[in-house]
Structures
1.
Amino acid sequence: MLRLLRFYLLSFALFFAVSPAVASGYIEHTYKIGILAIQPKSNTAQRWSVLGDYLQKSIPRAEFVILPLDDVELEEAIQDHQLDFVLTNPEQYTRYQGLYGLSAPMATVLRGTMNHPLQAFGGTILTRAEMPINDLKDLKGRKIAVPFLAAFGAFKMQQYELFLKDLPLIQPMQVTETGLPHDNVIMAVLENRAEVGFVRAGTLERMVAQGKVERDRFKVINQQQLGEYPVMVSTHLYPEWPFAALSHIDQNIQGHVVAALLNMDKDGTDALPFNVLGFIPAVDYHSVETLMQDLRISPFDQVPRITIADIWNRYRAAIIIGFIATLLISLMGFYLFASRKKILNSQQQLKDILNSIDANVYVADMDSYQILFMNQHMIKEYGMDLRGERCWEKVREQSAPCEDCNNSLLFDPETGIPKGSDTWEAEFPNGRYYLMHTRAIRWHDGRLVRLQISTDITHIKTMEEELRQKQKMEALGVMAGGVAHNFNNCMAIILGNIELARLKQDEPEEWNKHLDSAEKALLRSRDLAHQVLTYSRARSNERKPICLSDFMKEVFALIKVVLPSEVLLLKQIEVDCGGSTILGDKSKIQEVLINLCNNAVQAMEGKGTLSIVLDKVNLIQHDIPSKYNCEPGIYARIRVSDTGCGIPDEVLDKIFDPFFTTKEVGQGTGLGLSTVQGTIIQHGGMIKVQSWPENGSTFDICFPLIQPVEERVEEIEECAFELQTDKRILFVDDDRALVQTGQLILTAGGYQVEYLTSPLKALEVFKEDPTRFDLLITDQVMPEMSGTQLIAELKKIRSDLSIMLYTGYITKVSDEIIEELGINAVCVKPIVAADMYKMVRELTRKS
Amino acid sequence: MLIFSGFPRFIVYLIFFLTLSGCQAPQSDPFDIAVHPWIGYQSLTLCQQNDKFVGKNINVVSTSSLSESAKLLKDGSVDAAALTLDEVLALREGGVALTIVLIFDSSVGADLILSRKSINSLQELAGKTIGMENSFHSRLLLSEALKRAGINQDQVYLEFSPVNHHEDAWNKGNLDALVTYLPLSEQILDETKTLFDSHEIPNTILDVLAVRTSSLNNHKDEIRYLIKQHFDVIERIDTNSQDVLYRLSQVLQMPVAEIRDVLYKLNIPGPLYNNRLLQPDSTSLNKTLTKLSGIMLSEGFLSKPVSREGLTNASFLP
């Protein structure tokens, strides 16, 4: 069927063929010249007939038939060897040569004019002058008009320019095929059927010359700088059409044809069509082949069969380098894998260690306070992972960065180098105590961050408190003997003077004298009891400014009452220590001194000289042992010296170690001096000891001084004694004798007093008429109901009732309860009448 | 457990080193090359026009003459220049360390001695006035011609003028002969006959790419790239001569036919032949250098024979 079609096509072509030699004589052979028709075939045949005539004339006894064929017909005719010679465009020639074995180019068409002969042609890319298309890049996505997709000078050359500049090629969907002639493309662009047109170079100039279009309606894109080339070109130039023979044509006739073609007059006398001047020796068509290879145009669209040997031969160096690189990368990959595993293991170990630490460990940014890391212990304690939150907000429950934040102390602001660890204790909002170690560390991204390790020491604090209390009790036990001795002395004085007063009832002067002596002994007993109670009372850890001279006087009074009579107490406060003030907890420092004094008494076996001196000392760095975190400067020093047995040199270094004791089993905990040292360190101070065996020891306690605080001296209002007969007092105490005495004293002061020994009864009486009393005076420790319980009940009934708690055991009621219940005054038994009147008058006046 | 210690660390260092060596810091100073409008050098101008040097750190500095290119190279304004071989020798004598990395072309007829039609042989030049450019390669051409004619140089009269004034000098009528080079005007060609040309002294008049020796190491990649681009253009002259000719006609503002004629008179060596010429033991180049330096020594432009050491370097050729 295909063959039949080809026959008809060739017959049709032969119908148009012109054979001028048929009638001229004897013909040995007829040669068919196939010419690619880019115009209507009848025109092409007619115009190219001059070539047939010329060859017929030049080569005797040979007939040359011109066959105009379209590209499909031409290829089929070549394939079937129905032609002898071919004149076609360079791309078609290269294709046919590759597929069907055409000869090398025999000659190349020369076009143009005598003044401008052209051996090469190019393609033009044009658009309307007003279009925003100025560069090859602008062709992307544009609608392109071409004569037909197979056109060499009007599509493929332009595609290759895009290829050379690494720009996207024109896709078939962008293309509108206008058909031949090329003029159609230009009209399509002009009539806005396409945005861009691809034509063979010279088309526009020809149409302008023919008056078909105006030149200034168009602009040429990517115009090449080609000197004297007469028309605008947008592509490289490629050689003109070649004339070639099919493989069955012998070289003899080829030689005749080439000679004839090259000898053809180029002055136009032979009048070849389409501006063809004639032929020149064949030029190189390699550039066309390169274009076709790069654009993968048939026959170069087949991927060649490539063997491993080809690859090896061509890319040997690259393969070897690639193999080595792959090997190295694989080894590196393996190494990185193993390293990563090690790092992950190491990371897990560190994480496990961090998470198993019984402390809160976290890292926070120093500028934003953002928490960057938390260990599991902390996450568990806070119930959530606080990473990303601000430390002051979530950890310390503050509304702004902590005032005592020590971030700035953790590194040198000039060099940015971390300084070291900062350690302190603090009570957190949750009521727990923490020991904190903070330091600046370099985070993985280079910034300085804060690392804090907070250990919960609440149970240690509790134990410390219990231990201190135990120490206190031990000290009290030691004191008890002295207290009892002094108390007994007072009792003897009171008893003796009461008996003497009874004997001297008729001598008022002597009687009063003995009563005064009894009263003094009583007050001394009261002060003694007060001192012991104060000492035994557990206090909070509150630190307040302490005026050391006043404080030492209290300490001297306390120590004096507990010292055995055979111990001489030497007290000394240096003159310049008058206003010396430290920040501390009075009760703890008192305990320190009591401890040291007890040890001294024991070292002296109850006989000797105890010296306590308060002075100031200038400490230099050399004086400060490394275990103390003290800065050089002026310190208050309390020196406690004894004349006891001293401490042997071999144990001198151990005496502050916990549980170290030289006493017999059961006589001491070994925690006394350890606690003393701990207390002093907590106060930012230090303790040093010197000892001379058999001659005594000296303990120096140093505390950092602070600026003295001016104490507000309350002016004691001296009021004239004034009877207040309209004031009614309810006096409740389970001790009938005491309550009766009180009733008598207050009645003598002009008050109306109702006394009761039962708090329940008192509650009933009060309920009957709550407005009846101006003041309630009550004991604390009573069998039916405690004084504070009674107060609470009465306050429910009448909240503005004035209350005086009159107790012999003040430690039973805390300051918080006193404040909560609204107790106006607390009096410690016994109290002298004058003080009682003053206090009652004050309270009743308020009511 | 440390699985790897020494060897992997070596690999790490090796890869690190290779990576670093592949990541050279971008060079801030471009590789400047001076080119004057001689057809043999225009491959570089075409590359520049076709954006082949964009992003490659290469800058073509257009000059008006050979002497301007030589001056820029001498004062360090450029790293390289397209020069004639004799200029390179003169600059080296003047203390400019230069290395030839490419031979653009050798003249095979582009340099010629023309005479009035009444003079029929070289021997007839005795006692005649000869116009010429005061350049070494012109002197070389004349020297060779006179040697063949058996005439001493003192038997002729020399009148020097730049090559672009040769037509005027010829038209004044004082000159009997002219040592010059293509392209020439039609008028001169019509009025003269060629007595001698460089075709008779092959591989003697050479155009080369000379690079300051100090720039060789800093611009290795640029030099290699530039030479490869030159050879690409040369290949296109063979495979698509029409396209290249028209582009040259634009650059040189000359008709295509004239350009084609000049190209016929030039031998443009490819990479292989370049490699052969630039080898230190190249007989051909050594012969040329001997001739050229002999003339330059006799004229006092060289104080001692030329040393081949460091004069050429073939390592940048593809």
Note: DSSP finds 13 helices and eleven strands in chain B.
2.
Amino acid sequence: MGKRLSLVFVTVIFLFILIVVKLFFWQVVSFDKLKGLAEQQSVTSLTIPAKRGAIFATDNTPLTINQRAFLVYLEPLKIKNINEVVSTLSKELDIPTASISSKLKETNLVWVPIAHKVEEAKVESIKSQKLTGVGFMDEPKRFYPEASMAAHLLGFVGKDSKGDDQGYFGIEGYYDEQLRGRNGVLRQETDARGNPILSGKIEDISAVNGRDLTLTLDKSIQYVVEKKLKEGVEKYSAKGGTVTILDPKTGAVLAMAAYPSYDEGKFYNYKGDLYKNPVVASSYEPGSTFKVLIMAAALNEGKVKPDTKYNEEGPIKIDKYTIETWNKKYHGEISLSQILEYSSNVGMVFVAKALGRDLVLDYIERLGFGNPTDVDLQEETSPELRPKDKWSEIDYATASFGQGIALTPLQMVRAVAAIANGGKLMRPYIVKSIKQNDGKVIYIRPKVERNIFKKETTSIVSEMMVSAVDNGETKYIKPPGYKIAGKTGTAQIAIAGHYDTEKTIASFVGFAPLDDPKFVMLVTIQEPTTSPWGSETAAPVFFGIAKELFSYFGISPNY
Amino acid sequence: MNNKIIATNLVIIFITLLIAFFHLFVLNRYSTSGEKLVSLSSETEELEKENARLTQKIASVSALSAISVRAKEIGLTSSSQIVSLQSPLPIAFSSRSSL
């Protein structure tokens, strides 16, 4: 009896130990695996997409906002009539049927993306056909209320290598990190019907939406500028053109346009070489517009005086080169002001010689040439200046009238702004404020890079520029009643080590009104064919825009 | 003394049971509120979508290109001549009319 009792006792103990071991195995050893399996069944994980920040013009009207759009996908295993689905989607989405069919060739796929960022109206049309196996996922896209306005300045949103939205070029590219925000995650326990269990586990990492940007860009000015630029390029049968307008006192970009342009909402329909903004990413030789800067430098250093005279008697020989005036006319004894009025190349060689080689280079560098301006656009570049030891006498001579030196339109207009504002080189900027998610606004303040000219110098040069407009080649086309300081430029284009005899870049730079400049503007027209001259192509475009700006700013004629 | 201890224990047991029942009540009530939350979330989402649609429509209609087209349709044109009113002339010239 005792033996049987002991046997039962041992058996019970053994079974008990077995159960404990099994429980230990399931509850301790396999804990993580089983927890994962349980969570898979009852915990859903949702990505909460962050909204990309909007971009506003200076008057807080939208330039770029988000609109509802969808990713259209197929679930091949749920499709009942594949031919119907393929032909309907092909018709609705304007995608070849072969393209859709080829994506469905692999038999083991459960989810196949077909089209990205399809607009809501199209999606509703597809939904109304009640096709099985077709699904839609939120995938917002950019909407441009002003269509393709300021495309070069704004840039566009494409995809990165992971398939996420990424800004390219312009503001979208430069401020991509600020605009894109950060996706959130919501992990919550759900019941059998998929409804959340409020008393269950909830893990919520909120999405951080992208920040909204407000620009210095004035939509009304931009509208006028784009219209006038397009008309000008077409009228003069040119290859293209740019217009850049800054507030000379602050460096704020009021308008920036290039033609030809592209539609940033359909950027994929255009060639890639159109995406870069020529105002900040392409270089040109400024020609005679550069004269005002060398003249200002020489006056600033006291190397010439306002009443200095020059004897313009004929061409000048430097090394093996001959420098002539643009029209081969020579006027005898002329003043500095007349050097600009007649746009005399030989006169400018005299001024540059008076300034001296070291100071010519010094002012070129201090005016910001050879380095990017740090404007907040992604693709800004700067052509490099030749090293000092590579400058020969002819280079200093030609630089005095803006040939043999390359710069971007933005660099040029910023330098002339230093004459308009009393001598300060400003940092150009486009975003004036950034709105954070908590509603706090960060304001971007104007920045003075450095002082270049004395106020007296800028007053003298400004008057010379007014005289150049009133008495030079543009005297018959300038708007009456206004004091506009300006200078024409016609630069030959360098091709394969020599200058093309026919092709030019025509330009006009100026600011107004003289007593309190509200804008400084540079117009460049690339390879006009009706006339090569800046006075006959770029200047009329400048004055056409200036007339509109006078009206817009409420500036009365008083002269 | 014994009665006091018994009474204290009874109170503790009662409070514990009360808390337990309250906990059960709250769990029971809110465990099934997920459906309502989903419904409210859907409503919020629909309103946000409608908001976005209307914002887009307002932006389109108030775009400069749209205003320009509409202005042309109703017969407005850009001004061909700007007339500016001068500020009053100095008193020495008061014999001349001024606006």
Note: Residues 16 and 68 of chain B are 75 Å apart (CA to CA).
